[in-house]
Write a sequence for this structure.
């Protein structure tokens, strides 16, 4: 009877130990967010890069159709986030501190249209404009689409 009780207590102790080890195995962080233009429209296919400030290791991705980006399985530490989209100023945020088991969200609102580029080329709307053939003019919004004349 005592042997059974010892085995039971020992097995419970081992199970608790293995559960604690399994839970602490994830030592990575995640970073994500949404990229928008000054009007609040999402910007798909935007280049997003994240650089570890201590090691120089760079991670690159592009936003999806909803303007969202996500970096998974990052080592904790300090990072530099850079977001670039044609027609907008580059967004840079330094000294982003990532900690294990946390998933901060950094939403980016790109500002300022760079001269000679199309503000609608990355508007995130379902426009039918050729960005390479953009000409100055005026825009009118019809049915949530932007048409240039």
């Amino acid at each position: 009877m005592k042997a059974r009780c010892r085995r039971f207590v020992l097995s419970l102790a081992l199970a608790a130990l293995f559960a604690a080890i399994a839970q602490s195995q994830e030592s990575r962080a995640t970073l994500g967010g949404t990229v928008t233009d000054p009007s609040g429209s999402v910007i798909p296919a935007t280049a997003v890069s994240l650089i570890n400030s201590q090691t120089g290791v760079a991670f690159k991705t592009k936003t999806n159709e909803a303007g969202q980006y996500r970096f998974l399985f990052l080592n904790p530490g300090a990072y530099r986030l850079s977001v670039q989209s044609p027609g907008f100023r580059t967004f840079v945020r330094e000294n982003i501190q990532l900690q294990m088991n946390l998933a901060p969200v950094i939403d980016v609102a790109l500002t300022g249209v760079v001269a000679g580029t199309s503000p609608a080329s990355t508007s995130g709307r379902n426009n039918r404009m050729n960005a390479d053939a953009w000409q100055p003019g005026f825009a009118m919004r019809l049915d949530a689409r932007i048409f240039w004349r």
About this structure: Helices lie at 2-23. The two ends are 90 Å apart (CA to CA).
